[in-house]
């Protein structure tokens, strides 16, 4: 079944399947959470004429592996394990060894790399050789959230299919269908924070950040002279060092601020500067592991300052 917003991607894929010569490498580009990986798996099965679901011997998926040998041992023992931050060259070379043999069930085989933009440089260089001289019957689907991070030589050898962000109306309809239990305020906050990404919106709902969204909005609109709203925000964020949740909190703060910028009649530079600082915090959080409570206070202070600047701009 096609996900919302995949209609054009399917049209391009099926037109190519019906053509005289199918391009051997495809770049599936778009922001995270648009269902590109799901499309890749479904498109691969369609190309192979495979019914049902589950693993297929001629669909090879390359993604993050264990962080090191100790984590690999945990994986082999069926225990939880940490993932590496990128796709390594050894993983690509292992796939390339498999490509020296014939497909298992037919004449075609598909390699899905997800996310391709997280390949280490050496892995990208190794993959380039396969893209330049693809084995007969082998097709590559590269999922990329930030395609500009790929080597230009890789991008040039791929046919690009772009996955657009969804409109607010489409996002609202999707959340009403998939998360009917969610209240309006949380749904609206999820739509704002996700910026057109269904996967991000559903993750936001799962993380239960509706109260945080309300507090951030009040801080921007009302200010926070006595720091009480910032204290509440820190409390809602909690003390747990939960990186995905903290990243979602930062995404939410940026979204709330971005919505505020167009309504400013005066100089918007303070808001733009605050947005840049939130972007910086988002990039630093996974590395520096900021204290969640202090991070909440910092976010609140930035939003309060931006709100005050907005009021001055509006006279």
Automatic annotation (TrEMBL):
Xref: InterPro entries: DNA_Rep/Repair_Clamp_Loader (IPR050238), P-loop_NTPase (IPR027417)
Gene3D superfamilies: P-loop containing nucleotide triphosphate hydrolases
Pfam family, one: DNA_pol3_delta2
Protein name, UniProt field: DNA polymerase III subunit
Annotated organism of origin: Qipengyuania xiapuensis
């Amino acid at each position: 079944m096609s996900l919302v917003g995949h209609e054009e991607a399917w049209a391009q894929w099926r037109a190519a399947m019906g053509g005289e010569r199918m391009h051997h490498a495809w770049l599936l580009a778009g922001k995270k959470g648009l269902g590109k990986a799901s499309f890749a798996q479904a498109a691969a099965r369609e190309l192979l004429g495979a019914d049902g679901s589950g693993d297929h011997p001629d669909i090879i998926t390359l993604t993050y592996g264990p962080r090191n040998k100790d984590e690999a041992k945990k994986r082999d023992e069926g225990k939880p394990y940490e993932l590496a931050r990128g796709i390594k060259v050894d993983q690509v070379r292992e796939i390339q060894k498999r490509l020296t043999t014939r497909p298992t069930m037919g004449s075609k085989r598909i390699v899905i790399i997800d996310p391709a933009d997280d390949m280490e440089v050496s892995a990208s260089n190794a993959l380039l050789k396969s893209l330049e001289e693809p084995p007969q019957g082998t097709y590559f689907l590269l999922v990329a959230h930030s395609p500009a991070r790929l080597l230009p030589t890789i991008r040039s050898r791929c046919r690009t299919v772009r996955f657009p962000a969804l409109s607010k109306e489409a996002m609202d309809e999707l959340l009403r269908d998939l998360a009917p239990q969610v209240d309006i305020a949380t749904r609206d906050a999820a739509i704002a924070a996700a910026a057109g990404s269904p996967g991000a919106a559903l993750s936001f709902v799962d993380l239960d950040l509706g109260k945080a969204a309300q507090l951030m909005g009040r801080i921007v609109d009302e200010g926070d002279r006595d720091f009480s709203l910032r204290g509440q925000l820190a409390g809602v964020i909690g003390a747990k060092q939960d990186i995905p949740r903290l990243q979602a909190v930062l995404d939410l703060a940026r979204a709330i601020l971005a919505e505020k910028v167009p309504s400013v009649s005066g100089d918007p530079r303070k808001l733009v500067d605050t947005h840049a600082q939130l972007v910086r915090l988002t990039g630093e959080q996974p590395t520096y592991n900021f204290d969640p409570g202090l991070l909440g206070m910092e976010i609140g202070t930035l939003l309060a300052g931006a709100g005050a600047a907005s009021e001055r701009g509006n006279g």
